[in-house]
Amino acid sequence: MPEEKKLSLNLKTKQKLSIVIPVYNGGEAFYHCLLSIKKFAPPEIEIIVVADGDTDDSRKLAQKFTSKIIINDQALGPANARNLGAKIATGELLFFLDADVSIKEQTIPKIKLFFAENTEITALIGSYDDQPGAINFLSQYKNLFHHYTHQQGQENALTFWGACGVIKRDIFEKIGGFNNSYKLPSVEDVELGYRLTEAGYKINLVKDIQVKHLKKWTIISLLKADIFQRAIPWTILLLKYGNMVNDLNLSWTNRVSILLIYSLIILTVLSFWFNFVYLFIIIIITLLIINRKVYYFFYKKKGLIFSLNAILWHWFYYLYGGFGFMLGLILFRFKNVN
Fold first, then answer.
1. Is 212 helix (H, G, I), strand (E, B) or coil?
2. Which helix (H) or strand (E) holds 87?
3. Reduced to 3 states, what is the DSSP secondary structure of residue 202?
4. Mean per-residue pLDDT for 100-129?
5. Residue 325: enclosing H or E segment and its boundaries?
6. Rounded to two decimals, what is the model's pTM?
7. In a 3-state reduction of DSSP, which class is residue 96?
8. Which among 92, 99, 43, 84 has a CA at the least distance from the CA of 66?
9. Domain check: are 147 and 35 in the same one?
10. Could you give the CA distance from residue 130 to residue 210 in angstroms, rounded to a whole number?
11. Which of 202-206, 217-221, 230-234, 278-282 has the lowest mean pLDDT?
């Protein structure tokens, strides 16, 4: 590399970076999040924690790692918390990190190098790694599926991601930050991404910037998040912005799979009167074929028993995801009519 270019790159990698973490009752995962930052973040990195109405003394834990703590007496949601943190940030780059995520040794160096080498890019999003922190089946399945989805995604992204996303502070302020109307964890990050791309700014999915997700999923928390905090509000956003691209959760395989799952349900009901056994088998084989890559991924990572269970949950995911889409469509139409 020529000395002139090397010097320019070194100067650009010296951009100051501020980490902003919203937390509500973070528990042990939050401790490991802060511990990873203490271990891997250079001393000059600014760490800002926004305690959003916590009742488990997350704010006291944060005081052991940083002096920059904002306290909300009542929970106003991660969108509001991130905006408050961004207001006091001094870095040119804002690194938004969820409280149940831990960084790796190369996370921050890779972020700074990426922005130094890609000055035209406004924001980046990373990926969960393939070694989730919680060991129960649902946590392994959900987080591995999320990892796989991001690893298969297009580098030119349309959405932002609050769990591990970095954005230039001046553009973040210019665009108006996160939408404070989201009072609960939802698609406030996706909505920000849509506004950024609509305004002509570029977002990149950088697949080798990976963090560890420490969240333990249960059946209730998973269904609540996937249906009410993602599927329904994301559907409303899609209908508003019209960004039905073939990427991430909106890939054509996911759309076709939802139709096939609902076809299976209809055939099951009709089978009381008609014989659809061959059509039933064809649909199941089709589902297995078009999703073969993700199923093979599960098999490679966790073996046969895990992958068989994952297939069943994956089909259930299409079932309730389709249900969430239909509810979102109804709510959007109802809202427009009124």
1. strand
2. helix 78-88
3. coil
4. 97
5. helix 304-337
6. 0.91
7. strand
8. 43
9. yes
10. 9
11. 278-282
Q: Provide CB contacts within 8 A for 272, sequence distance 6+.
A: none
Residue 3 pLDDT: 46
Report whether pLDDT(207) > 70.
yes
Contact 229, 221 (CB under 8 A): no
The pair of three-digit structure tokens given for residue 263, joined into one six-digit string: 């076809």
Which residue type, as a one-letter code, is found at position 188? Answer: E
- DSSP annotation string for 234-264: HHHHHHHH----SSGGG-HHHHHHHHHHHHH
Tokens of 98: 């969820």
Is 200 in the same domain as 311? no
How far is the C-alpha of 299 from the C-alpha of 136, rounded, in Å? 16
Does the pLDDT value for residue 272 go beyond 80?
no
CB atoms within 10 A of CB 208: 10
The reply to whether 212 and 255 lie within a common domain is no
Measuring CA to CA, how many Å separate 126 from each of 11, 51, 159, 208?
Answer: 23, 24, 12, 7
Domain that holds residue 74: 3-216
